[in-house]
Design a protein that fits this description.
With 139 residues, the protein is α+β, with helices and mostly antiparallel strands. The chain has helices at 16-32, 69-81, 106-112, and strands at residues 2-10, 36-52, 55-67, 85-93. The protein has a domain at 2-95: Alpha-Beta Plaits. The chain is globular, with a radius of gyration of 21 Å.
């Protein structure tokens, strides 16, 4: 099984319940095709870079999916004919990164922020004031 990042944009004029219905339809397509959703993030209503079907905003939804190629082909075919979906993109990734994305709601990021280290964080040491001598300061 391969890992895929699936992002799709839903029409902005939908209510919260209608957006949840679209999300559940997509989840049903994935699970009925033998895949699993490892991570799901609702990025919220955002400004689009350019108008899509006369819309300047849209609800962004991100899924990290584990499945096979035919599952993604079926998902893309179904998203293409769904009137509520403005645009979508599925990308195959080598490994699943379960860290919440920067666009995730802050409540999801806060729970995992202590575990995330940036490159070089473990080697960086902050010097104390005691490490400096008066001769080092140019005043």
């Amino acid at each position: 099984m391969a890992f895929y990042e699936s992002i799709y944009i839903v029409r902005p004029d939908l209510t919260t319940e209608q957006v949840e219905q679209v999300v559940s339809r997509v989840a049903d397509i994935i699970t009925s095709g033998g895949g699993t959703i490892l991570q799901h993030e609702l990025w919220g209503r955002r400004q689009l870079a350019y108008p899509l079907k006369k819309n300047t905003k849209g609800f962004y939804i991100f899924n990290l999916v584990e499945g096979a190629g035919p599952l993604i082909a079926n998902l893309e075919a179904r998203l293409m004919i769904d009137e509520d979906v403005l645009k979508f993109q599925n990308i195959r990734v080598k490994k699943a990164n379960l860290v919440p994305s920067p666009l995730a709601p802050s409540s999801e990021r806060a729970s995992d922020s202590s575990e995330v280290l940036l490159p070089g964080d473990e080697e960086y040491e902050v010097p104390d004031d005691e490490d400096y001598e008066d001769d080092d300061l140019d005043v």
